[in-house]
Amino acid sequence: MSAVVEPGWLSLLPPLLAILLALVTREVVLSLFAGVWLGALFLADFSPLAGTAGSLGFLVDALADPDHMAIVIFSLLLGGMVGVMARGGGTRGVVDVLQRFATNRTRGQLLTWGFAFFLFFDDYANTLIQGNSLRPMTDRLKISREKLAYMVDSTAAPLAVSAIVTTWIGFEITQIRDALAGLAAQTDDPVLAAQLQAGADNPFTIFLHSVPYLFYPILALLFVLMIVVMQRDFGPMYEAERRAASGGGLIRPGSMPASDPTHQALSPPSDKPHRWYNAAVPVMTVIVVALSSLYVTGAAAVDPADRSIRAIIGEADPFAALLWASFAGCLVAITMVSAQRILTVRDALEAWLGGMQSMLLAVVILGLAWGLGGVTQELGTGPYLASLLQDTLPLAALPGLVFLVAALTAFSTGTSWGTMAILFPVVIPLAVAMGAGVGFAGGDHYPILLGAISSVMAGAVFGDHSSPISDTTVLSSMASACDLVDHVRTQLPYALVVAGVALVVGEIPAALEWIHPIWAIGIGLVLLYIILRVVGRNPVEGLPKDG
């Protein structure tokens, strides 16, 4: 239960302090702890000693959460697998093969964008595998770490939130189902109750109908491709790309990457072969085991009479699937390099530990970010932001306002899933109470209900992209070996542009039923193209060409 503080705006101060300190000082660990400490101070009636003890308690609670610990172990195991792949020369072998296609910066970035679609099923797996596997290639092509982190971050979550078979889908349809079922049980109108229950009985259909209204994730995914094809950047990203392309460094001088890919334990032996399949096979093992585990855990939980993919994925345990997949990937990676005598078992284990060690800073940041999320939950930050929707407002404006509130909530709390968990129980009943979705599929104002549902998801992804305390932002920086604050500074202008276009051409017109969402996405792409043509510049223009 949240210990809501009064006045409500006080609950915003801890996340705001963490975000502002991170942006100003670029000391992420200190900034996050400051936010946790301030929130604990509020909850301890401004007693510094009790507040300090409480802040440590929040960190312990964050790591005691089984799902959080599963992500930590998954990240460490995947880091260890990448360490073995790198030390055994597999990663170098992949880069050598990709070099045949990725002969220039544009092709390298295009390959990075397309690679994400092979890892669509989970944003964490997508982020960590994509960044770690492709970073040597992008480094060789002088693509900045900031650009790699942006491409990793802006393809992983948008795919996971919109694809129909992902680790997100069970969470999303459960939220929709619970909100509708709860509303059906509370209403006194038997006709409305039956309609609500019908929607609760088939939330997957409602989710599918809402996918075309996911304007920000879809446009963000396509905007990455547009930037690659047009060879244009703007803002801090332009400066970062020009620095890297001119030989000024893949990272900003003085920056602190979230992981250390140059760790000595990760350097491949020069006298051993660099075979691409020593990296490809462990990665494919992770993908196959993850998908198989999703099926197995889901099939064990569903009614034998309903063995549809929708039902199975909806009941799957994504955390168990990721743990099994990363563990299997480690076993395969170690076995392969040992069997080929590229590394001894001892050397392989040292490389595995070295890979995990490179993840240490990111794990610390993740723990602090989760601790801050616990503080904001206790303070009632999310409910306070959601309460801003309770005022009288035009029905057609609901999706747009939900998008903004979801973005602000995710930005302040650093979690897209937490934002959805906070807002779905508020937004769906509010939309129905205002007259959206009566009769549901094909009913009155059904597009507004779909827009409100999709706006929770889209706003959560946008706020998550923009926040320096987000776990996916941290993971993207970690996998790309990029400074966290540099990643946020370079990605934020792109995220804001896409969000603005999504709001103007998508959220509002589609809710008013002025335009079909597919046409809205098309118009959004045209606007993004114009913006990129006007403000974007080629970062390598005027630089000497490599031979």
Considering the chains and any ligands shown, give keywords for the structure.
about 550 residues, mainly alpha, 3 domains, 25 helices, about 0% strand, globular
Write the layout of secondary structure elements.
Elements (H helix, E strand, L loop, with lengths): L12 H13 L2 H16 L4 H17 L1 H22 L2 H9 L6 H11 L7 H18 L4 H18 L6 H18 L3 H12 L1 H8 L4 H16 L5 H10 L31 H25 L7 H7 L2 H22 L5 H13 L2 H20 L1 H7 L10 H16 L2 H18 L12 H21 L4 H10 L3 H28 L5 H19 L12
Helix pairs in contact: 1-2, 2-3, 2-18, 3-18, 4-7, 4-16, 4-17, 4-18, 5-7, 5-14, 6-7, 6-12, 7-8, 7-23, 8-12, 8-22, 8-23, 8-24, 9-10, 9-11, 9-21, 11-22, 12-24, 12-25, 13-24, 14-15, 14-16, 16-17, 18-23, 19-20, 20-21, 20-22, 20-24, 21-22, 22-24, 24-25
